[in-house]
Design goal:
single chain; 1 helix; mainly beta; about 240 residues; Immunoglobulin-like; 19 strands
C-alpha cells in the first residue's frame, strides 16, 4: 500500500510563484538540501533584474527551533536574466542555494527576505510562522502487520513519531483516472509502540472505499503544526 519515491536522493524544495512548496527526494539529518526559489513571490521593485546581486534575496535556515540561523544569498545558476521562464511547477527560472543538513538536525525551518533598491525589506515567511519541514521518513514508517493480520493487505499500519497527536490520510477516489473530491480519514492510536518507541497508528480496511483506486497523502500534527507527507509530490496509491 505504501511505496516511497525519492529514497536515497538528496532533498530539493521548490518555492514557486504560485505559492506552493514542494519537497522532492529524502530530507534527512546528515543529507544535502537544495532550495529553488522564484523571486516573483516577493513584491519586486520596478526594474528588478533576475539574479542581480543589487537586490538580493536571502534564505534563512534553522535545523532546530532554538538552533542557530544560517543565512545565504540566493543566486541564479543561469546568470542575470532579462527574460525569465515563470513555471508554476518550479522547473523554470529559479534562484538557488544549498545546505548541508547537520547529523543532529531536528527539523527544517525556512524563511526569506528581499531588500529592494529603496532599502525596504520584505519577508516571505508563511505570514510570520516560517516554513517548516519534518524528516518524514524518520517520523512516519510503515509498520508490519502481525502474522494474524497478514491477509489484510489493504490495512494501513504506521509507526509515527511518539509526540504526534493526530494522524490521518487525505485521499481522493480516482474515477476514470481523475481525482474526485478531497476527503479525510483518521487513524487510531493502538496504544502500542515499536522497538524504537514510535506509536503504532491503524487505519482500518473499511476507512477507505473499496472497489476503486485511491490516491492519498499522510498528515500528522506535531508541536502545534500539521505536516503532510505527499510522497515527494507523487502521492501514495491504493488499488
Amino acid at each position: 500500500m505504501i511505496s516511497r519515491h525519492g529514497l536515497g536522493k538528496a532533498a530539493t524544495i521548490y518555492f514557486t510563484h504560485v505559492w506552493t512548496q514542494r519537497l522532492e527526494g529524502e530530507l534527512k539529518p546528515g543529507g544535502r538540501l537544495s532550495i529553488y526559489y522564484d523571486p516573483h513571490r516577493m513584491p519586486l521593485a520596478p526594474g528588478y533584474l533576475f539574479g542581480s546581486p543589487d537586490q538580493p534575496i536571502t534564505v534563512h535556515v534553522k535545523f532546530s527551533e532554538n538552533g542557530p540561523v544560517h543565512d545565504k544569498v540566493l543566486w541564479s545558476p543561469a546568470g542575470i536574466l532579462r527574460h525569465v521562464d515563470k513555471d508554476p511547477t518550479g522547473y523554470g527560472s529559479m534562484l538557488f542555494q544549498d545546505f548541508a543538513i547537520p547529523a543532529d538536525a531536528e527539523e527544517l525551518v525556512v524563511w526569506f527576505d528581499y531588500r529592494s533598491s529603496d532599502g525596504r525589506v520584505h519577508y516571505d515567511s508563511d505570514y510570520g510562522r516560517n516554513f517548516r519541514f519534518r524528516f518524514l521518513t524518520r517520523d512516519v514508517r510503515v509498520h508490519p502487520a502481525p502474522s494474524s493480520e497478514n491477509g489484510n493487505a489493504r490495512q494501513l499500519r504506521l509507526a509515527v513519531n511518539p509526540r504526534a497527536t493526530h494522524v490521518s490520510v487525505r485521499y481522493r477516489v480516482l474515477e476514470r483516472g481523475v481525482p474526485g473530491h478531497a476527503r479525510e480519514a483518521s487513524l487510531t492510536d493502538t496504544g502500542t509502540r515499536d522497538p524504537e518507541g514510535c506509536r503504532i497508528w491503524l487505519l482500518p480496511n473499511s476507512a477507505l472505499p473499496s472497489g476503486a483506486p485511491v490516491v492519498f497523502d499522510l498528515a500528522y500534527q506535531l508541536n502545534g503544526h500539521t505536516y503532510v507527507d505527499d510522497n515527494s509530490g507523487k502521492h501514495f496509491h491504493q488499488e
